[in-house]
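Blackboard transcription, Thursday session:
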Amino acid sequence: MKQRNPKAQGLAYKRLPRRALILGGLQAAFIGGLAARMRFMQVDQADEYRLLAEENRINIRLIPPTRGRIYDRNGQIIGQNTQSYRIVMVREDAGDVDKVIAKLSELIPLTQEEIDRAKTEMRRSAPFLPVTLADQVTWEDISKVAVNAPALPGVTPEVGMARQYPRYEDFAHVVGYVGPVSDYDLSLIEDPEPVLRIPRFQIGKVGLESKQEINLRGKAGAKRVEVNATGRIMRELDRQEGEAGADLQLSVDADLQQYAQARLAGESAAAVVIDCETGDIRAISSAPSFDPNLFVRGISVADYRALTEDNYRPLANKTVQGTYPPGSTFKMITALAALEAGVVSPGNTVYCPGHLKVGSRRFHCWKRGGHGTVDLNLSLKRSCDVYYYDVAVRTGIDNISEMARKFGLGVKHDIPMSAVAAGLAPNQEWKERIHGESWLVGDTANAAIGQGFMLASPLQLAVMTARIATGRAVTPRLVRSVNGIEEPSGGGEPLDVNPYNLDQVRKAMFSVSNERAGTAYRSRIINDEFRMAGKTGTSQVRNITKAERAAGVIRNEDLPWERRDHALFVSFAPYDNPKYAVAVVVEHGGGGSKAAAPVARDIMLQALYNGTPPLEAYPVADRDRIKEQQKRLEGDRRPKARPDEKDRA
Amino acid sequence: MSYLEYAVKSTPSGFRKFFYMNWPLTLLLISVASAGFLMLYSVAGGSWMPWAEPQVERFGLGLTVMFIIALVPIWFWRNMSVLAYLGSIVLLIFVELFGTIGMGAQRWIDLGFMRLQPSEVMKIALVMVLAAYYDWLPSHKTSRPLWVLIPVILILIPTAMVLKQPDLGTSILLLAAGGGLMFLAGVHWAYFAAVIAAVVGLIATVFNSRGTEWQLLKDYQFRRIDTFLDPSTDPLGAGYHITQSKIALGSGGWNGRGFMQGTQSRLNFLPEKHTDFIFTTLAEEFGFVGGITLLTLYALIIVFCLVTALATKDRFSSLVTLGVALNFFLFFAVNMSMVMGLAPVVGVPLPMVSYGGSAMLVLMAAFGIVQSAHIHRPR
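(Written on the board underneath:)
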């Protein structure tokens, strides 16, 4: 047995307590160090770490604002937000994604494109985030999905807001449409708002929706949410509601707009009705039109191709974007320029033999045999060209151009629509600058009758007419009020034009549509209170050769559509107290008196009577035909809601 | 002293021994374990499952094991030391051949009801065999080179085996515990000075070798060291755990964010929140006050072990008690240093608090030996 007596143990044994205390001391020191470190982190630096912890857990999520609604002047809804149904899928709940999608596509129509896009999105995003499989789903499809819910794990129907245009084609060109923000959209905006980066957030793409985007969009709200380490939302901490977009009220009368649209149907045409007192645009129609709702849903390739390949260009907004040679509707401006320049007085006459030699060229009157002796009134009433060649050459292009600008031609009107054209009221300086050639006297002759370089949009023609009617610088107003606050009126200041001269021109315009020899006599209004003054225009889109003129000018009916003349008509009524100015352009419609004037007259009457006018307002001979037409248009004007409204595109 | 001598002294016998246990130590252990239950309940989102309840059951088992071991005379355990050591070596070989790899690199043997990590068992067996060795070795031979070499070999064999698993954390703990025991046994300080100087020199050499053609560590190993030294260089990669752990700990502040209110742990920003990083949750939810309280409890356990060790006249008892205390200290010191960003993440659990059966059972068994030494101390 080994000796175990402690006393027999040597030096090493005595060392134990000492060593134990040394080691214990080291341990105590280390523990003290840990405590100090803990104090440093938890007391001295606590605030910084607390902040970091909050940054970790709190995320700010944007709440998309409700887009402002758009109303007509009477409060009829034009652009609204409706509930739309979509089908979303959560990857982590679905399990076998492919199997579930296959099952779903047996129930509802899903395109391969939609499926591929959804799958890509699912691969990219966190497994608990819902991914949209199908948007704008019909109620029936939603029900089918709901009924089969147990067989479709991870698939849920969701309700969202979508833009909807209940007036369909009527306002497509005015209001435009919205669509999801594209990369291109973002590239145009400097420092885009964060809300634009919300997936599928919709912004105005064209028209008023685009031009008034800032007003309509509103301000995004935000909610603070607590998220876990993988980004899943655990709970909402608080939210700050956003600001809904401003509601816009248009100056347009939806019923009149609808009538104008229906009246223009079948033609490639444009019509603009302006309120002479306020500049309010009462109707602004471009035909043919399209259904803007198709674009909101994402238009199909076939539908889009149908729109782009149509000769009548349904996507073009002819009212502001289309510019046409104003033709004889420009003659009021030439006349006013001449009168103001003192070159002629209303009583002076010009002899019209049917042509006039200007410079080295012979310029023809539209009437082969000529009009004989014409004064101002007669020249407008019968639309004599020679009179205007003559006075224009004496007046000079710069005076004419200046007068045109005074009446809003060649000037870009500031209205919130897409691609508003400035048109063209040329002068000498312009031609030298653009064409590098000096202005010829022949150019003046062409300009005098609204041909040549002269270009105007239907909106500009309507503004011109309103200015002639009132003598004030009427400016068009499309948005009447924003969120109930009225926009400034477009009534305008009196123009710097001799009222006597204006009155002579107005009188002549009265003759056009009220006197037997007037070019628009057949489109007169019978009601004494509502008598209409106007001017026809027929603008050539081709040159008439000497040979053709010798053989007899080919009639429009015998030409292919795209070579026929444009038909124009401008008018205002009532003559004594102008209320509305109307401009109508029918592309390749033939003669203004035949193709444009009746349309303008019908729209004018509709505006004046604020509804369907009585047959007594029409010339007796036309009443039967008008009755037919009214009946037909009544049928054409579409019901407010279509039965297929919920169908998917 | 003979077994007889122990018997002659008025050592308590039978179940009376129960009353002679080191009760303050027992109560401290229960308190620490209870803190663990509370935190496991919290990190499970206020639920006894899946962690708190099994932990309570295991602690119950651990207490039972401790009591049984405590009632067996200390000399029995001294005589078992070599056997325990050899058995642990066999287990380490076994686990190397047939063990399951998981959770990093630690290998375990699946016993059905629990996973046994032989490296954990080895921590205690090493302490026992070294204590027994120095109890047996006449004290004048303690510092002789040959007699120093034997314990060094005893330490290096398991260290090397654990390192090969590879489990760097545990092997460093083994090395530290073994070295500490040799220090306690009275080995001349010159040996330690030499080893420390060698280690410092080696580290300096390794760092200096960086970027030269005789570079001693791989680039990724250096990067790991960089990340440890400055976690912000890689906040979402390797430094993520440390950064999140520090945020959780620091955001606790003075009073903490409240029981079950810790956002970092509740929202899963904390990694391994129920095992290695459980102290962070505690510090986040109970703040500086809570953290210091736990640290104090740990310190008190060390203190009571030290007092027990110094009070007993039996060399084996003293050494084994101090060895267990040292092991325990290394556990929580490394773990806390790690979560506070003072040490690299090496995968050392917080003793008695972290979820995990094998480490706690082994510790309770070790405290059983400490209790036995206390009960059966020569009187």
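Lecturer's comment: The CA atoms of residues 95 and 109 of chain B lie 6 Å apart.
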